[in-house]
Amino acid sequence: MPHKLVVQGGVKLNGRVKISGAKNACLPMMAASLLAKGRTVLHNVPNLSDVRLMCEILEELGAKTKYENNTVEIDVQDESITVAPYELVSEMRASFCVLGPMLARRGHAEVAMPGGCVLGVRPVDLHIKGFRALGAKVDVEQGYVRADGSTLQGGHVFLGGPMGPSVTGTCNVLTTAVLTPGVTIIEEAACEPEVQALVEMLNQMGAKIQGGGTPRLVIEGVSELRPTEISVVPDRIEAGTFVLAAAITEGDITLEGVRPDHLGALIDKLRSTGVKFEINGPDSLRVIGPKEPLSVDITTLPYPGFPTDLQSPTMAYLMKAKGLSVVTEKIYPDRFMHIPEYNRLGGTVRKEGNMAIVYGVERLSGCPVKATDLRAGAGLVLAGLAADHTTEVFDLYHVDRGYDNFEGKLAALGAKIERVEFLPRRRAADRSGDAGMRRAA
Ligand code: EPU
Predict the structure, then answer these.
(1) Protein residue whose Cα sits closest to atom 37 of ligand 1
(2) Mean pLDDT across the chain, nearest whole number?
(3) 97 CA closest ligand 1 atom index
(4) Which protein residue's CA is at the shortest distance from atom 18 of ligand 1?
(5) Which residues pair with 254 in a beta bridge?
(6) Which one of the listed residues 97, 117, 171, 191 is annotated catalytic?
(7) Which of 122, 277, 384, 394 could form a disulfide with 7 if both were Cys (CB 3.0 to 4.6 A apart)?
(8) Quick check: helix, strand or coil at residue 89?
(9) How much distance in Å is there from the Cα of 227 to the middle of ligand 1?
(10) Ligand 1 centroid to 166 CA: how many Å?
């Protein structure tokens, strides 16, 4: 049965919250386990449906997996399988990251094209360009990317696209380059902490990569890698969401197991709206929300710029800020599906091309809303925490993809929030059976 989150707004959140490992670091790291036969172990893995799905995909590709107590064990046994089918890849874009490791280690890979998603078009041309620059023969046929790695040779790869570098594109090309003979240089590589985490894992496996966290990666190919054991970096997007939970509820929250240095752009912007921060060491951050938040303009950009994944949660906060804020989306120009839902809650947000104009309002008023994507779902919950009355957030499967025990962590901070099962209402067309079918035809 599906679930919804029921939120009673008006509580100032208070207390401590432990941040989980990063989904977007963990998924490419899990895929990278295919680079070596044997048992790779990842710790600090968040409990998410996307992680469970990646386990299923790795099982299909010849690994045995075990996922318990925030640890994933991946034992790669059969290295003969080279096809990742559409049924699995279409459910999660990050599964495309198995292509690079399979190409490098198994000499061949066929992975279904992931297609578009709720954020817009999302092509994979940069991934393909990178594989070709390393000498792979790549065809796109019948919905699959087919890559042959019999002539791989280190090369010069430029990974910049119209929206900047590609995060999973960098991960994919990097995981091929580590086992490719010769030296590969990746220019305009993504600098996100999730890519840095993958570089650290690969080097621990025996790869020779220099420049992790910079736009220029230099990789000296090696002939073999060994499995490894490593912990996943804290999730900067989950952390940012809890920062915003403190900000929007006038709360006082201390985040633990966090990397404040990964949150620079968010901290800078929110400070100017009146949020107070105390950085207490390398992994603790106290956030105190303002009585009357001020507006601010934000523009999403590749790291270390403002993250697109925090655009919709930040917009929820800006709906209650005094004045007018302009939110410019430079990574996914169509990532604004949440605006109509925010306006149902009493927000006054207008879309203009790749910009949203947010006019701050005195109060939001709870109502039923639908999560349009993972981060929009989190933004709706935040808005519900600050709204009068009750907000019900539907289509929760989006939120479950990327937030480990979201409602449990919020409830521990004092939020009145509950996960409730519900019976979906049958639509008139469903109830009318054959008659309905005939009408539709
Ligand atoms: N792009 C291209 N060609 C490509 C690849 C990307 O033009 O071949 C464009 C995209 O259309 C987009 C921009 O480049 O405009 C950046 O896309 P990128 O490839 O960096 O995105 P991604 O790797 O598919 C990851 C995260 C996303 C996050 C983006 C941007 C994972 C698993 N996903 O996606 O996370 O929004 O980077 O930071 O790492 C989320 O967690 O909610 C989420 C969507």
Answers:
(1) 167
(2) 94
(3) 32
(4) 166
(5) 16, 286
(6) 117
(7) 384
(8) helix
(9) 27
(10) 6
DSSP 194-223: HHHHHHHHHHHTT-EEE-TTSSEEEEE--S
Residue with tokens 């960098």: 170
Chain Cα centroid distance, residue 67: 20
What is the model's pTM? 0.96
117 is catalytic: yes
Structural fold of domain 23-221: UDP-n-acetylglucosamine1-carboxyvinyl-transferase; Chain (3.65.10)
Atom index in ligand 1 nearest the CA of residue 402 equals 41
Atom of ligand 1 nearest to the CA of 122: 11
Please tell me the distance between residue 167's alpha carbon and the centre of ligand 1 in angstroms: 6
Q: Please determine whether the domains at 3-20+234-421 and 23-221 fall in the same fold group of CATH.
A: yes
3-20+234-421 folds as UDP-n-acetylglucosamine1-carboxyvinyl-transferase; Chain (3.65.10)
Tell me the per-residue pLDDT of 84-123, one tens digit each, with 9 for 90 and over: 989 888 889 999 999 999 999 999 999 998 865 678 778 8
Residue spans of the domains in the chain: they are: 3-20+234-421, 23-221
pLDDT tens digit string along 202-237?
999 999 999 999 999 999 999 999 999 999 999 999
Q: What span, in angstroms and rounded, lies between the C-alpha atoms of 422 and 417?
A: 15
Peptide bond into 304 cis (omega under 30): yes
